[in-house]
């Protein structure tokens, strides 16, 4: 439909005649409407006065809605995805050549071999639709019912369910459906409640582990899209992407080699073969997902992703089980087994006593009549009574077996993993959480961990002169080549006169920034002027990298080296002056240049030197191992220049080092920098004092050349190891472990993998760390910060401390419940606590107690104590003191209520039993506060920071009140008046002053059972560290050493158990 056109004059008139008396909002609206009319009128005038090309007819002005092309429409691609995937999987060169080779495939995939894919949303979308996404189908996660079923498999709960079934049947038969279901039904409900709470806890933990697993799988990949180097998630990789590979990277998908140098791939994760495979463009251009880059660098074209790769097919069939048991869980399982045996013994004795009393006619029913009258008693009545007795005995077993201990470990590990993730530490291996708490030594890198990893070139020297004046054009040209060709970084300029975008490692970025800004280097011009023939990649052993190139202008061959200043200097016999003169390097000039390096290093600068050498065609040699690779000249070079990179210390590091020292944890800095830089940084961080002692600082080569005995003698003294290689780091870790230390090691390079695996806790760097290093580690430090390492140490100690709190709490309940029920059964022929009541107590201490105490946050006091050591006893003398005092108090009070309660409170037997039940539960509630602080007098410290603890306590009290006051039939209780409630609360609250008083009682540091064994002369003289802690089956438990400085590989003689 045509629109009415408004003339230019009408539009102006409307714009000028806007009513000025309207409100501001209406005025603005009218101005906007008038403006729209004005511009429409203006467009009409233009259309009427400008003739249309090819037509003399004036068309009226109309508005057209032009729909953009569908974002899902994909450009035509002749390539078959299945054939492409099969070609790479089968490594078929013939098939590859048939479909056009790498360049032909790139063209079919709409990929520019240099600039990559366009990378916009529409482009990525059609690639995903045609070739799939880079995700593999995971096995479905376990559902909630799986964990419910697992919880029902507990043998004691199964016995209880059988008893409940019998009780239900007998009850209904005897009292009818209306009244007879209470006892059996109550047990059913209580068991179901225990099962549901346990299943919910395990279900949530499994979900959390799955979530952390997905986070650890999400690694960043370097790609080129729309000419721009950038990082994308591995899940966002699509077919056609150009991926940049360097040492330590994981290959994110199947693909083909485009170009690169010295590229070697480790396919052990996919094929099991440990031999590294050479990849090139002629004989083996195939790259497979899941493999790692062992050496060199290169670019690849992605041809298959996700389920179309061999790695995807393999991983989709693997179900990741969280079945790993940590050392602490193993020890706790042994403790649980020992306590369970004691519980079984007590339950058996109770069962025998109750059955004997019943069949001898010493028990009475509620009416005061004998329950068993010989032949006069019916079979149903006998079976009903026996079922009750068996139910009570089985319930004692349920309470006695501390199945909450493994749950407490699981909860505290899951909670600490979640909190550590928020604190920039991702746990890959569960046992690392607890082992870190025992660490006695931390071996740390310098760059990025102790420092900010923000490199900047602050000094540069040409020969013996500081480069503060104009550099000779010839030297400048060689420096451009030495920086621009011998690098793994890149320089991208989005448009003319735009600021360059520089990517690469912090060191490479700093050098490239200096070359571009200070030396005026044009990266593209340098690359086009030369052809690279051979590359030797940088690694932490050689501490240098080199490149052999041919000039495209005069066809001459040149070699460029870059690396640690003193190492490159040793390769040179000449040097350039700032004026461009090539001068022979005599001993005096070499010493002066060394002094320049040392002075820069003493100022905490990392020194890097550049060297150049021209090579004649006759001098070109091939490597001995592989005649296909050219050998780079290493001697007789000319020094181009030296630069000093400043990397400031992290401001929080000094405080973190002080915290470690206070916690009796040694810090050893292991760095590849020279000894002067290492000393300066270590002093600034507080690792070294201003007055240094002999043996505190060594170089890697010196430590490496020691004899084994010398290394063992000096390893404890060493604080700094400079110019170290990954082998030196591994040697130090091995020596420290042989000395009995628990060692944590940080690492970021591929060559650090052996040391990370050898250490008790391997800590890889999340930013600068390679994928090989991350996979070899137990914990990934996401921000590369040493302060996070200290946070991990604090959480590690918190895990062990929380477990000890729960053990103290649970054993108090175990001891009290067992003794009370046993004495009552033997003396009175009945247990004061029914099956349902004991199941409720079991729920409080096993599940809710574990949840409350296992989620305590770490306190500052944890790092004021020495490390617990890998073999410290689970139950310390302090814990024995606390739990025995509380258990004895509860036993004394509750047995008094059992035998004298009716006369003291002038109540019936049913009310007395309810008082015992209520007082017992409230004792556990108040004792939970005591368990928060085993030594600290202030048990309320930090309570406001743990809302979960407060919530669980409140929830427990509310449910207890409901049980007592409203669930008479269910819980077999009677309602209590307010005086009786006050009495129960006072009984429970008395545990606070008792806990306060017993903390004034000093205890010896030596474990109680070790002292007992020593005094009774049961230990052989040559094994003073073996001792009996707990156990009923001699020779069946593991030997534990009561010292953190004793080798875990040592063996004690004799059947001494823990």
TrEMBL record:
<comment type="similarity">
    <text>Belongs to the cation transport ATPase (P-type) (TC 3.A.3) family. Type IIB subfamily.</text>
</comment>
<feature type="transmembrane region" description="Helical">
    <location>
        <begin position="978"/>
        <end position="998"/>
    </location>
</feature>
<keyword id="KW-0460">Magnesium</keyword>
<keyword id="KW-0472">Membrane</keyword>
<keyword id="KW-1278">Translocase</keyword>
<feature type="transmembrane region" description="Helical">
    <location>
        <begin position="342"/>
        <end position="360"/>
    </location>
</feature>
<dbReference type="GO" id="GO:0005388">
    <property type="term" value="F:P-type calcium transporter activity"/>
</dbReference>
<dbReference type="InterPro" id="IPR001757">
    <property type="entry name" value="P_typ_ATPase"/>
</dbReference>
<dbReference type="GO" id="GO:0005524">
    <property type="term" value="F:ATP binding"/>
</dbReference>
<dbReference type="GO" id="GO:0016887">
    <property type="term" value="F:ATP hydrolysis activity"/>
</dbReference>
<dbReference type="Pfam" id="PF00689">
    <property type="entry name" value="Cation_ATPase_C"/>
</dbReference>
<feature type="transmembrane region" description="Helical">
    <location>
        <begin position="835"/>
        <end position="854"/>
    </location>
</feature>
<keyword id="KW-0406">Ion transport</keyword>
<dbReference type="InterPro" id="IPR004014">
    <property type="entry name" value="ATPase_P-typ_cation-transptr_N"/>
</dbReference>
<feature type="transmembrane region" description="Helical">
    <location>
        <begin position="947"/>
        <end position="966"/>
    </location>
</feature>
<dbReference type="InterPro" id="IPR018303">
    <property type="entry name" value="ATPase_P-typ_P_site"/>
</dbReference>
<keyword id="KW-0067">ATP-binding</keyword>
<dbReference type="Pfam" id="PF00122">
    <property type="entry name" value="E1-E2_ATPase"/>
</dbReference>
<comment type="function">
    <text>This magnesium-dependent enzyme catalyzes the hydrolysis of ATP coupled with the translocation of calcium from the cytosol out of the cell or into organelles.</text>
</comment>
<keyword id="KW-0479">Metal-binding</keyword>
<dbReference type="InterPro" id="IPR023298">
    <property type="entry name" value="ATPase_P-typ_TM_dom_sf"/>
</dbReference>
<keyword id="KW-0106">Calcium</keyword>
<dbReference type="GO" id="GO:0005886">
    <property type="term" value="C:plasma membrane"/>
</dbReference>
<protein>
    <recommendedName>
        <fullName>Calcium-transporting ATPase</fullName>
        <ecNumber>7.2.2.10</ecNumber>
    </recommendedName>
</protein>
<dbReference type="InterPro" id="IPR059000">
    <property type="entry name" value="ATPase_P-type_domA"/>
</dbReference>
<dbReference type="InterPro" id="IPR006068">
    <property type="entry name" value="ATPase_P-typ_cation-transptr_C"/>
</dbReference>
<keyword id="KW-0813">Transport</keyword>
<feature type="transmembrane region" description="Helical">
    <location>
        <begin position="811"/>
        <end position="829"/>
    </location>
</feature>
<dbReference type="GO" id="GO:0046872">
    <property type="term" value="F:metal ion binding"/>
</dbReference>
<dbReference type="InterPro" id="IPR036412">
    <property type="entry name" value="HAD-like_sf"/>
</dbReference>
<dbReference type="Pfam" id="PF00690">
    <property type="entry name" value="Cation_ATPase_N"/>
</dbReference>
<dbReference type="InterPro" id="IPR006408">
    <property type="entry name" value="P-type_ATPase_IIB"/>
</dbReference>
<feature type="domain" description="Cation-transporting P-type ATPase N-terminal">
    <location>
        <begin position="101"/>
        <end position="172"/>
    </location>
</feature>
<keyword id="KW-0547">Nucleotide-binding</keyword>
<keyword id="KW-0109">Calcium transport</keyword>
<keyword id="KW-0812">Transmembrane</keyword>
<dbReference type="GO" id="GO:0005516">
    <property type="term" value="F:calmodulin binding"/>
</dbReference>
<dbReference type="InterPro" id="IPR023214">
    <property type="entry name" value="HAD_sf"/>
</dbReference>
<keyword id="KW-0007">Acetylation</keyword>
<feature type="transmembrane region" description="Helical">
    <location>
        <begin position="389"/>
        <end position="415"/>
    </location>
</feature>
<feature type="transmembrane region" description="Helical">
    <location>
        <begin position="184"/>
        <end position="203"/>
    </location>
</feature>
<keyword id="KW-1133">Transmembrane helix</keyword>
